[in-house]
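Database export, one record per block. Field names are fixed; values are copied verbatim from the stored entry.
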Amino acid sequence: MDIPNFYDSPHFRRLILVPAVLVLISLMLVLFVSPIRLGIDFRGGIDVTIQSAGAADTARLQSALRGAGFEVDAISSKPNPGGYVTQIELERSPLLVKADSLKTEFYTRLDAAANDEANIYSTNDSAARTAYMASLQAMNSKADEIFNLTGETRRAGSFNTTSQVQRAVVLALSDLSSREQARLESIISANAPAGSDASFEEVTASLSGKFLDTALTVVLFAVLLTTAVVFVIFRTIVPSLAVLTGSVSDVIFALGAMSIFGIPLTLASFSALLMLVGFSLDTDVLLSMRVLKQREGTPAQRAYAAMKTGMTMSLSAMVAFGALFVLAMVTHIPIYYEISAVVLAGLFGDLFATWLFNAVILLHYVEEQHKKGQPISDKPLLSYFFKN
């Protein structure tokens, strides 16, 4: 049975209340009720995956890890086709966090010492030598802090060159990381089920910071390029803003679902959010092209025809990601779960954002243009800036 064309109703503008309320609820969830936590990819930490024939004693594992100084953020043990998979998210040990901080400070001082050393050869004056000795002393001081932290007995002053100090610092930090890794592996091995296989993935604070910076850069360029392309296509402000608002609404719906179900913001869920922008643009551009560019039938009839096509597209995508979601439930693979759950939530929200928000905005825009005696036409690209 066909869905009635509710766009023909004189009260079709009221439809916009539904997505508006949903967006408001999603924002309240994200901002006030249950803020989305950053995953290991964006905040740093250690992800441990244990595959075993039997279920792990998660309480025992958590107690042992915390007793050894590892802060457990999340732990779960679930069945999968290979037996049981146990996922543990850990904060990096305070020792490694401190080592990372000292490493960053050391390399900052190393760069300063290298620059001052180069100035000696280019200027060869006493001021340059004084600056070099000061920066060298600062670098050695930070290197000695690293040696004290890692148990290295040598001092930075015993080395002849800065490259030797750098090499010693790298080796000391590597040894510390290996010791902490071995300590963690021994705890897991002693408290996991017999015959289990564990894998470890560690993300340092500096690497997670780069991931976050890159993600923000991607979002910025995606918004700018999308805005430019949409404006070039429609050449009018209102339809372009409606398309972009629909994409933002989809992302907000997905963030609300992440808040409800406790899905962290990781590289996987972030990529799913970017996919949603693409899916949203597909349906929004389809609707806008039908309503603004075509001339057959009334605008309400064209919007209704576009809805039937767009909903078919969305439902097809939902079936595909639904299959991935089922696979994630069976295998308990976090990446599959995060991608499929986030995309499904966003696609469900897209049904409201596109057909109850964007469509209402476009139909109202067309109606207002007709009232003003300004029928929709293909305007020159720069008509807003260079009018005849």
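Remark 1: The mean pLDDT is 89.
Remark 2: Residues 334-371 form the longest helix (38 residues).
End of record.
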